[in-house]
Amino acid sequence: MAPHGLEPIQAILPKISLERRQALSQAESQHLRLFGAYILAIADQAPIASLLTDASASVPERPANMQIWQPASNPAHARERDDAGIAAVVEFTSLETSESASAFLTSLLNTDREDQLWTTLVVDERGKALGVCYSNQESLCKAIEVQEGVYWSRRRGLWHKGLTSGATQTLQRINYDCDRDLLIFQVTQHGAGFCHRNLHSCFGERTGIALLESVLEDRKTNAPKGSYSQRLYNDPGLLKNKLVEEAIELSEADTADHVASEAADLVYFAMVKCVSAGVSFTDVERVLDRRHLKIKRRPGNAKPEFLKARLQAEQQDHVVEQTSVVEPTLRVIPSDDVPPLHRDPVDADARAIVEPIMHDIRERGEAALLEHAVRLRDIEVGQPHIYRQADLKKVYDELEAADRAMLDRTASRIRLFAQMQRQSVQDEAVLKIDGGRAGQLVAAVEVAGCYAPGGRYPLPSSVLMGAITARVAGVKQVWVASPRPHPSVLAAAYIAGADGLLAVGGAQAIAAFAYGAGEVPVCDAIVGPGNKFVTAAKSLVAGAVAIDMLAGPSECLVVADDTADPAVVAADLLAQSEHDVAARAILVTPSSTLIEAVNKEVQRQLSTLPTAETARVAVEKNSFAVHTASLEEAIEVSDRLAPEHLEVHTADAAALVPRFKHYGALFVGHMAAEVLGDYGAGPNHTLPTGGTARSFGGLSVHTFLRPRTFLELQDRASAEVIIQDAVDLALIEGLHGHSRAAALRLPSALKATNTKPVIAV
């Protein structure tokens, strides 16, 4: 064995022939892999033996960069040679058992701990720290024997990492630091991760290339619909062309930012190539390390074929031929074959996942909320999960002036529309009846929770739509929840007048709203769009609290005639499609010419749309065009589907409005794009989906209002008929107690004695 970091050993190891490696015993192969940089295979290698030097030969005069080597037949010899500054070379025959291997290794280690444990830094294949453990002779022996991460727990003794959780480790190499009082275990981490919080590392998650590699590995087997990475895996020709394209673009980049951007693009495609071939970035690093040891100088000129290709590329203005991609179009179906939009918005698997989360937070409150928030990466340990009004105002004040003004204008339009809705509702209505009066009082719920999704992009518009509407309705306390909130989301919560923001998402946020958690109060109403886990959570609390709806994937239907602009219609359909791979974009028209023109525009616009990866799947899998016999039939198809969003692109759109019966929100005419409703023209964008617009409306002030009725009777004589009818109807239904209670209000009851009932029942 030799001290850490000595170049001679690292230089010799690559020289061990492949044939020799293949001839090693299983134990030898394992130990070579574990201690490869520190143990030399010299069992029958004469060239290596020639490196050995007599320790007594001019040791004081040897150059500082020269290392003397001597054989060591046992751990004690290894320690003696090491103390003398001599590298101990161990034959593999001495390392055939884990006991002997660990004994040789520990003979060179130091510790000043009272418990004689060695602090052990655990790192992944790329050297990123995963966590800190402890080792002793017993655990080290076991780790070498099973080739896995085995440590010594100060509480539990021998600890085989992941044996119960499944988060085991394959041991790749054992190393130590320059002082030899710290062991380093290089491992391949399996399962959820090293950290008990199901994270890859106790020091934070992967970043950079390591993160990219883990995502690409996942995409090989668990790619979502429309995954561009999956497309590259399935199309080697496209991947090859993208590699060439990005390499040329990197070579032509001329600023620091441009170089960084193009290099990142090239690294992405290079890693796709590696992962598809089963090559890890660690494998690439090993090749780089081996090349570092070589001193052969090469000219480094480009190959002739690439010089020729470069010349051709320059002559063609650097145009790189790419694999042609045929973009999808809306499939055309007859009106009789139009499928219903209804899909069960509650995913059974999602519901099974969120139920224990909801129960845990209901039982344990804020402690459980924080545990789940950290586990699901809403927040880091110790990170604040509540933003109060002062915090929200600070973020609002720090926004760019233009962004503040834009959010303020949007909020003003949403507020005005909500106020119009509120003014359409009478707070009190009274009807005179015989003997008294009956009436209705309308009031808002006390506390509302407004959810805004996290996801890929911030959604301040959803915050404004929910919280402003609640405030205008008259709700006294309004809370917002949104995971990993963007500054624009925090600013929107301030503008909307929210009392606080919970920086947590998913089922854990819905549970906090429904049951209360710490500062978050129990809410009377919970509103706002979310993913399948949010929807499942809302379904579990519906009835105990008011909810707006159980919404599924978004949809937009366009009814159009020949006066419609194909480019505008296509843009509106693609705007819907980029929401989600499950989104639906539908064109209904009597014009086959328009369908053809819109499909050409869909293909053209998809080819340059930055979000095409998602939109492409939505168009291909879920979207369609319906060719109807007339505009009247187009209206009938629309009403049958009851879409979330309905756009009317016809010659006289306003005249058609009364003929449409079922929709969540209507956009009349070529100018009224659905996206304008999404971003705060006034009407709310939280709408019923899946055909439920036949039965439900969108989020509005009415969602937060409770109509409460009252009855007041003062004149028995005038109310006698009402009371007698109640007596008789109760007897028909067999509810004698009801009948007696009513009979006691009859005028004749005043003349009755306590021993003589008014009526016999």
From TrEMBL:
Keywords: Amino-acid biosynthesis, ATP-binding, Histidine biosynthesis, Hydrolase, Metal-binding, Multifunctional enzyme, NAD, Nucleotide-binding, Oxidoreductase, Zinc. Signal peptide: none annotated. Gene3D superfamilies: 1.20.5.1300, MazG-like, Nitrogenase molybdenum iron protein domain, Phosphoribosyl-AMP cyclohydrolase. GO terms for biological process: L-histidine biosynthetic process. InterPro entries: Ald_DH/histidinol_DH, HisE, Histidine_synth_trifunct, Hstdl_DH, PRib-ATP_PPHydrolase-like, PRib_AMP_CycHydrolase_dom, PRib_AMP_CycHydrolase_sf. It catalyses: 1-(5-phospho-beta-D-ribosyl)-ATP + H2O = 1-(5-phospho-beta-D-ribosyl)-5'-AMP + diphosphate + H(+); L-histidinol + 2 NAD(+) + H2O = L-histidine + 2 NADH + 3 H(+); 1-(5-phospho-beta-D-ribosyl)-5'-AMP + H2O = 1-(5-phospho-beta-D-ribosyl)-5-[(5-phospho-beta-D-ribosylamino)methylideneamino]imidazole-4-carboxamide. Its EC number is 1.1.1.23, 3.5.4.19, 3.6.1.31. GO terms for cellular component: cytoplasm. Pfam families: Histidinol_dh, PRA-CH, PRA-PH. One of its GO terms (molecular function) is phosphoribosyl-ATP diphosphatase activity. Its cofactor is Zn(2+). Pathway: Amino-acid biosynthesis; L-histidine biosynthesis; L-histidine from 5-phospho-alpha-D-ribose 1-diphosphate: step 2/9; Amino-acid biosynthesis; L-histidine biosynthesis; L-histidine from 5-phospho-alpha-D-ribose 1-diphosphate: step 3/9. Residues 132-203 form the Phosphoribosyl-AMP cyclohydrolase domain. In the C-terminal section; belongs to the histidinol dehydrogenase family. PANTHER family: HISTIDINE BIOSYNTHESIS TRIFUNCTIONAL PROTEIN, HISTIDINOL DEHYDROGENASE HDH. This is Histidine biosynthesis trifunctional protein.
